User: What shape does this take?
Amino acid sequence: MKMQNQKTNLFKEMNHMKKLLSVLLTLLILGGSCVSALAIEPEEIAFNNIEGCKTLEKRLYSIKEITAAQLLAQTTPASVKIEVNGTELEADSPVPTGAKISLSDGETTLDEYLFILLGDVDCNGRVNALDARLALRVATHLENDLKYVQLLAMDVDSDVSETATDARSILRAATKLENCSNWLALATTEYDCTSVLVVMEKAHSVPGRVYTADFFDEELVESVEDLTYIDPAQLGSDASITDFSKWHQILALKLKEPSIDNVELLIRKLAGRDEIMSAGKNGYIYTMNTNEAGYSETY
Ligand SMILES: [Ca+2]
Ligand SMILES: [Ca+2]
Assistant: This one.
């Protein structure tokens, strides 16, 4: 009996030691990851201190032509690699739209950023008249075969569409007529990316009409919220509401997986739809020129 008790005590003791050991190990592991996180926190890397450069999520936007050496010299403390199509960029080469910037601690990759030189549509690291010409061809649908990153470089007013307005701005910037600092501010403005705002065409704007996610895009959209819902009891009491010829239904499409990439993908997918007058980023302030009903259509 005494032996049994001793054994039990020994087991208890061993279990206690095991628990202590596992706690110590956990602390060591946690401590280790804290140390490494502190030492090489990507957010502390000074991209945003580079004049004319700013990040939004994993994109590094620039409005200044910058060489690989200049970018490397100003990016500390992590070690940085700048690649274009898998080849490391020469030090004196201008960093083009589409370059991949990898940050590492010398061994493992910590983070990757996509470089976008706003206005550099042809991806050569310079903004000039050739970019404006290409942009105009895209805006007029003469050119449809651009990579996604080229669209990001062309959309200098950040409305998620590539238009003649963008092309004209790029031409003005290329000829030094336009100060493009607002491009950077627009491109890197953080916004609520949980939903996309949609303004329906009048013919598809019916008070109380319920739209479902699959009407828009069942892969990206989770649910639809009608921001213009009108209480049926109010109908008939207010002439401005019942005059449906001047009425647009405004919807918020909630995304299944909120991200700036998914917001932009959905807006681009909706762009060609006849039922939709416009689709835009949620929370963006923009004004439409369809103010026929006499109310301010500023959101
Ligand atoms: Ca260019
Ligand atoms: Ca645009």
User: Anything to note?
Assistant: The chain has two domains: 44-188, 193-233+241-282.
